[in-house]
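FAQ
Q: What does a multi-component entry look like?
A: The components come first, one per line:
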Amino acid sequence: MEFITYEQEGFVGVITINRPKALNALNSQVLDELNETLDSIDLDTTRALILTGAGDKSFVAGADIGEMSTLTKAEGEAFGKKGNDVFRKLEVFPIPVIAAVNGFALGGGCEISMSCDIRICSENAIFGQPEVGLGITPGFGGTQRLARLVGAGMAKQMIYTARNIKADEAYRIGLVNAVYPAEELMEQAKKMAAGIAANAPIAVRNCKKAINDGLQVDMDEAIVIEEKLFGDCFETEDQKAGMGNFLEKDKEKKLKVVPFQNK
Ligand code: DAK
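Then the predicted structure of the entire assembly, as tokens:
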């Protein structure tokens, strides 16, 4: 692959968008390679993913404006579908995905970070949806996911004004969970991913599905979704070992509930 690198460290996979000369802008090839990378991940041996950008300046500076500039309506729609399909694949990927935002996250860059479960960023990170300045609307889910994450009022302000925000503001409005000095970002992302990977994998996956699916429906339906996914955890090795450790009053094991099987 030319623009995506994948490294596996224990149960954690690190995907890097590697096109630093264009500030990791998303062209069709990047989207295709990201799609292929996600398809090739072994879910029996991977429990959490980190998505980041190469270099110290940019996470993803948006969709590739050069490539987009000459698209016809039909080609624009096809490009939008390619992006939306891979962003949605990330969003519903069975295991948690952490975006480690190491610089510009503009347009499609902000949008891809919002397709991840959790965002953390470096102090030099800049977020924004500059599309209306380019004569388009956000097209990779920005109008939908930003409003769900930070509320409609703040999302509308960011999108209508096309004003970029810095890391501290992104933290204040709840777009990112934490801000770190640039040199600590990946270490912190890996620490969080390892913490997730040390927990029961079936339970973690079911939590992701319960939260994602539950947010799409009313509370009565949402509770039924939770009940089903809760029930699904029983009779697994994870549940037996997790509860067994507690009942045996084995503090060491209780604090260290590993290494559960996948389904
Ligand atoms: N696309 C292509 N190349 C880009 C790029 C981008 N988005 N952003 C940066 N680059 C390239 C620059 O052209 C430059 O290339 P060379 O000239 O060196 O060949 C190189 O990266 C370095 O950039 P700069 O020289 O501009 O670096 P600066 O530090 O001066 O400025 C910047 C950094 C991030 C402020 C600036 O590059 C910038 O404003 N970039 C554009 C940011 C932006 O507007 N991003 C949003 C793009 S719109 C759709 C679905 C989704 C979308 C569209 C359609 N459909 C449903 C159809 C999504 C749209 C977007 O994401």
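Q: Is there any commentary attached?
A: Sometimes. For this entry: The pocket of 4-(N,N-dimethylamino)cinnamoyl-COA is lined by residues 22-23, 25, 61-66, 68, 76, 79-80, 83, 104, 106-108, 130-131, 134, 136, 139-140 (CB under 6 Å).
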